[in-house]
Batch of 3 targets.
Target 1
Amino acid sequence: GVILLYSLFIRNTQKIAFLFDSIENDDYTFRFIGEGDKYDKLLNNSLNRIKRVLENTRNDIIEHEKYYEHILNNVETGIVIADSTGNIYQTNQAALKLLGMSVFTHVQQLKNIDKELINIFKQTQNGDKRQISFCNERGTVTLSMRTSEVVIRQNRRLIIALNDINNELDERETESWIRLIRILTHEIMNAITPITSLSESLLTIYREKNDNIYKGLEAIHTTGIGLISFVESYRELTRIPLPRQAVFEVQQFLTRMIRLSSPEMHTPIINLSVQPADLLLYADENLISQVVLNLIKNALHASQNGEAILIKAYNNDEGEVIIEICDNGCGIPDEIAPHIFIPFFTTKESGSGIGLSIARQIMRLHGGSISLIRNTPSFHTVFRLIFD
């Protein structure tokens, strides 16, 4: 009897040990067969019930993790969960996109973007709020960074939230310029229009009476007309209509833009690459044509020595449509590059300084962006249009 009890104890202990070993290995494929006497059946059924409870709990946890991961990957805020040593435990898709990375497991990977980011991520603490900027293939990126802390099983974790504030900054800057331009053009037009009108009337009176007075009035009138025309050109920045978007073929569109911008045979060669060939864009074709024509003309102007120009259009990994105008012309100096999208800024003798400002405003109205990328491996200057 003792031997029977001992063997029964050993057998049942082995079953329980097997149950725990399987659970530790995340293996729930086993099942105890309900055979033997009623006590064996009771034990086997009880072990199977324990297995089912634990399996259901595990499945619930997995489902909840998938649910929360899905939510996390569908928010626009980038989330990075790290520790104080630089290990990255989790990131969502928004964070990877903002940082321009496909995988992020340690802060040392940030050295490929900007070495200063490594120190920023390592030194950030609970409650920190700051603004960070760096350059990547999308141009200059400005992010707001907020850090909070959570303790899980006595392990300290930092939750870093990243938000792209480029568009917000661009929008505020553009709106400020538009308000200023409206005020200036209104005041200038109010002052110049009566002078121009009066000088025109006086011209008819002094046409044959006094040659010196007539010439002076003519100079005043001509200057006034020129100033009115000058002011009207800046009003364009405040009169951009809302986009009337429709789908059109990028290949045909860019081919037409090339024909319009380079009618003469001696202009630099413009090569076109569209991948896929049937690439489509949902935008206001008339407004985007203003942007592309201006960029092509700028590239032609920079390529005075006949350097070939390349126009590329493609889909990036996020499914966005990208159009790039690339040239190897004279390039844009360091001291000028930060100012090129500011209204009134120009390096051309006859330039108005609003072409790129209008381009940025049009792209913003489309929910996209325009950026300058300099000194790439293949080109001195690349203007990139991104359509979200």
Target 2
Amino acid sequence: MESPSYKRRRRNGECERCRCHRAKKKKKHLYLVVDDWKGGYSIHKLDADDNSMEHRLPEHGALRLASSPERAPMAFAALGTNIFIATNPRCSRHRAPPFLAYDTEAAALTVGPPPPDGHLRDLGEAVAAGGKLYALTFFWNEVRHSSSLQVLSWEPTTDQQEAWDPSMEWSWDTLPAPAPYTEGEVITSYALHPDGRTIFMSTDWRTHSLDTGGNGVGAWRDLGEWTLPFRGQAYFDAELDAWVGLHYKEDGYICCCPVASRSATTTTAQQQSECKILEEKLFRRCGEEKFPYGRYLSATLTYMGDSKFCLVESVLRSKNALDAVLHVTVFGLKYDHKRELKTKAHRTTRFYGLSKNTLLFSHAAFWM
């Protein structure tokens, strides 16, 4: 294990299109994606500093997306100031509609590229690094299943023919090295190294890293039979000098662990022994006393910078209805004098009631 001090703010190297580096810092917002109207999905723009006790989301979101009820749920991923939308992620490339790109700064929706080859699933493992979005796709035939990593980036147009044709566009590319996963494997957790270019991905029993920059671009490394102690995405925080995420046991706790080495192998026992679990339980699970008649759908953790996080939990009000409650909790983390993980004094929680259309989609949350 190695955990060098990364106290300085790392630069993400985002592309100009993503507008991540600018002289004047603009206020960021929480963008919450829900299926809260009969015709499809809404993207709501929320002020994280608003302490009002409003129990309903705005009647009209920043963006509405129409969706046929017969389709599979839409999938969402973020890169820079853009939210990318796969309107029908279960369709293969030749039948699928193109991606949509919602620019949150311009409040504008544009048509993006066609989806990449292969099966995208729900974009649940998509990771932004170095101004690009990396997403796993899966292929299968009569002989075997295979996977590859697709890269979405803002690049010069390759087939510009007329003066009015755009000179830049979003496009997908495939990394030459195949990903070390099969269709049956599930990515349980993933995190970006503070170097801004190395992605860690864990399945149920082992972990791989991917170098997305420098001379090792596209090179996968098998790190051995150990796993990250998280569920879903974890985030590096410089003040804590650690990755932070939802605990892998799905028991309602937040945890952190030292940053793993980009090359050396370790063990799950070592990783878990160095994991610090927040004693305070920040969210509930299905069947607990707070929701004895409801059904837990999902919880997500979003990093807001400077040891500040947003936890969004979706719970159905009852077992046989689609009325749901979203719990949005904004909190900070710190170490106490014993180096134990604690929440900071100020914490806010808001509740939003909404009517859902499907149990196959919970929500998505982005800070930008």
Target 3
Amino acid sequence: MRISCFLAFLPVVASVFVPPNQHSDHEHLDRRALPKRWFQDEEHSARSLFKRATDDGVDYPTVGSAEWRARYPRDRNFDVDALPQEWVDALAEAVEAGRIPDIPRTTMPTADGNPVYPPQFNPVSINVCSTTYKCVHPEDIWDAPAGVFSSSFDDGPYPTSGRLIEFLAAHNVRTTHFMIGVHILAHPDEFMDAFEGDNDLAVHTWSHLRMTTLDNLNVLGQLGWTMQVIHDSTGGRVPRYWRPPYGDSDNRVRAIAKEVFGMDTVIWNQDPQDWRLAAGQTTAQAIHAQIEGWLQGPKTTGLMVLQHEITDGTVDIFMSIFPLIAQNGWEFESVASCVNDGRSYQNAEGSQSDDVVLADILALPDDDSDPSTTDSEGDPSETAGPNPTNTKLAPTLSATHAPLAPTPDSNPQSTGSRNVPSLAVQAWTVSLGLGAAVLLL
């Protein structure tokens, strides 16, 4: 009986302990096809019934026009009572079906700290799985495939985006732009340059807020309005990926993005904190040396480096390290092109592809899903057990991922091995003691 208790306890130990400096804490990405697709195979008879097109055939207002701007919130704030009813209904249906975990909003005791959950909610538990606290959910994307430098830029578009886009085009490569909705309204020309340059357009929310601090309707609007302006401005393409500002997400926010809008969450595994350059808190030389060190390291796990297109300085840093990527044997790809099946949008292969399928931004119903797998009931402090959104894989803690330094995209207290790794080591130590005691008995 005592041996059985010890053996039953081993999965809990394994799920909590994360050895330092290894990537075995979660599955690494391989290229893989999605089980559900918006398109038919080349030989399918249905293809002859529909003309392939670079847009969905809908007549949208000209990007940058007054009519175009009038379709969206005028500034960083929006009225949740004025959200499109179909979005609200889709959210309500997902909540009623048990697909949106009932996790409370976080608070920010200090402006430069981490978001905090109520005491009974463990941020690294399987029921919460906060990315701020380096919980790696199996459906989130943190790493690129082996040998791949996956390129993306946050916070655009900005006036400086033009130089970046021209540089990418000159070298015949593309990137994934995680764009802020209000910045799209402010810089429509740079937005269109990125799109027409065949770069991937993804969501970085409407106004760059910490998502776990928001209620469900505000999360809905932050994602929905950004998706909508991208959809309406790209011939009807539906964004497939989003990245949370400050890397701040959890099972509730993740579920709204996926269940209501069909988007996958993208984080990162290396952060040079290039945004600090503008504030004089670092130097271009220091950032360059840091990235060069990663490029000279092992290729077993691909690089997903967080970069920004916010100033000439951050763009210059990318330009300076770009030649080193190939020189060190890395394959350069955009984030969207190197994960899953390589398609950048939910209803189109890419920004300039001719396979756009007419679709709105709400997710397709998933007939294969089981509502019970997203049940959030149970002890919110548990750190092992069935995954509330995926019964095949449980979330893990990352000792190697260091999201997250202060603004604009990082969290200050989760850098390096602070907080969670020490928690994991403590749990491991306690577990070893309990296990030894059982064996001695």
